[in-house]
Design a protein that fits this description.
This protein has about 70 residues and is α+β, with helices and mostly antiparallel strands. The protein is built from 2 helices and 3 strands.
Length: about 70
């Protein structure tokens, strides 16, 4: 039982570390939401990411967007 608990704790710690190691933060700016997201998509493709998640977007005198790339 103790060996199983130790194994589960170690696996959980490794999965948290490996998940954090593959989330790469990026940012982009542009004149429209579409052009800024296209910039994020291009960065994801260049980094070999399998997907990206937009974490924030603001529009004032242009658009600023941040995202996390997932490998």
């Amino acid at each position: 039982v103790m060996k199983t608990i130790t194994t589960l704790v170690a696996a959980a710690a490794l999965s948290v570390l490996s998940f954090g190691a593959f989330a790469i933060p990026v940012s982009a700016s542009g004149s429209t939401l579409d052009s800024t997201e296209a910039n994020i998509a291009a960065q994801a493709k260049a980094a070999g990411a399998s997907s990206y998640i937009i974490t924030s977007a603001r529009q004032a005198n242009g658009v600023y967007m941040t995202a996390e790339l997932n490998k």
